[in-house]
């Protein structure tokens, strides 16, 4: 939608400048003036300057308008890769995915993107791009399905996050760390896809996770598993960022060579 608005604004701006220049050129006083060529050149220069400045301002304003990168509610779901596993969910892959219940170990390859829509919708997961910065929104629930926190465009929606929780981000990545120090969300936007790992409770209190695995397969996934031993102790997502974010906002762990 915003791309069409930009094209329309550009056309209208060009038309307005062209009409103004033509009107000046049509004036008899300009044609009969001894320095008519200089006047015409000056008018063309000022018209081009006005047009260029207007286009720059239009593009700047457009960059400030939120652009939806991912939103199940709006039906906008790009290609998603689970970490760097090579397990990719894409619209081009058709077919059925295994039942929502149970745990799945997936090898690198392509899977139907529709399989992720229910869980992304359940946690109100959204990614926007605003002025070159990704902004992530998500609802966080507990084992009873109750809302315990919300992240709205990278910030906690209340004055302070849940006790000992934290989040950190830079222009293209965001992650959330829970009160036990586990990374429950890690998302990075890349050209043509979103790379993510996530662990969260659904509205029914069951757990869903999409995680890269370094043990028996390329990714481990579950869309609707009952919490319990083994499930609640998943700690296999290495952090991207340093913590606490209050003193290390945007600082990556790799900066230390780890």
Brief write-up:
With 258 residues, the protein is of the alpha+beta class.
Strand content: 25-35%
- Average pLDDT number: 79
Per DSSP, the total helix count is: 5
> What structural class do helix, strand and pairing data support?
alpha+beta
Radius of gyration: 26 Å
**Model regions low in confidence, pLDDT < 50 over at least 5 residues:** none
Question: Mind describing the biggest β-sheet?
Answer: 10 strands, mixed
**Rough shape?**
elongated
Q: H/E element string?
A: HHHEEEEEHEEEEEEEEEEH
Roughly what percent helix?
25-40%
User: Total strand count, please?
Assistant: 15
Q: Please give the alpha-carbon distance between the first and last residues.
A: 42 Å
């Amino acid at each position: 939608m915003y791309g069409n608005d930009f094209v329309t604004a550009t056309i209208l701006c060009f038309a307005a400048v062209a009409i103004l220049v033509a009107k000046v050129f049509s004036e008899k006083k300009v044609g009969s003036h001894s320095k008519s060529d200089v006047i015409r050149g000056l008018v063309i220069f000022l018209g081009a300057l006005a047009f260029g400045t207007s286009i720059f301002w239009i593009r700047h304003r457009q960059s400030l308008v939120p652009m939806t990168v991912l939103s199940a509610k709006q039906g906008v779901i790009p290609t998603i890769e689970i970490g760097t596993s090579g397990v990719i969910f894409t619209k081009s892959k058709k077919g059925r995915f295994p039942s929502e219940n149970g745990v799945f170990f997936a090898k690198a390859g392509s899977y139907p993107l529709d399989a992720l829509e229910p869980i992304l919708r359940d946690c109100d997961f959204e990614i926007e791009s605003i002025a070159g910065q990704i902004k992530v929104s998500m609802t966080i629930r507990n084992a009873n399905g109750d809302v315990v926190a919300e992240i709205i465009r990278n910030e906690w929606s209340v004055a302070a996050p849940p006790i000992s929780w934290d989040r950190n981000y830079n222009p293209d990545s965001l992650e959330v760390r829970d009160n036990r120090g586990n990374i429950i969300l890690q998302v990075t936007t890349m050209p043509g896809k979103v790379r993510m790992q996530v662990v969260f409770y659904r509205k029914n209190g069951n757990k869903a996770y999409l995680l890269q695995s370094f043990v028996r397969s390329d990714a481990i996934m579950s869309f609707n598993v009952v919490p319990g031993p083994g499930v609640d102790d998943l700690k296999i997502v290495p952090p991207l960022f340093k913590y606490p974010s209050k003193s290390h906002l945007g600082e990556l762990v790799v900066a230390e060579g780890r």
